[in-house]
Amino acid sequence: MSVDHGVASDLKRSDLARLTGCNLETIRYYEGVGLMPDPPRSPAGHRRYGAAHVERLGFIMRARELGFAMEEIKGLLSMVDRGSHTCAEVEKRGRHHLDVVRAKIRDLQNIETILAETIAKCSGSDTPECPLLTVLSDGTVGEAD
Description:
Layout: H1 13-20, H2 24-32, H3 51-65, H4 70-82, H5 87-120, H6 131-138
């Protein structure tokens, strides 16, 4: 990934958004939190983005799609920007993230099981008693009949 963000182009923020499919406000946010570098400005003071900005924003968006947290992305970008990273360092971060994703999947599978079992106990009748509401109210999973 190129890190020469100083090379100006004629891309406006709206052009960057259109090219990447990223929302304008999201680009502003990424700039504000330091994920995207401040672009150079035209003599009139307008922000001008270049190919390196497009590439970096694409990196950020792909990382977000894979569920990386903002701090994790900052860490990865910092490694790239320094140019001193090794594949082993990146792999370590990737493996940690994979562990987190797998834990979330297990949690979602547990949620799915509880919801399916509880909803299966719902009578669907016109009575106010409902196993799902009982579970939500007092957490008596598996006891709602």
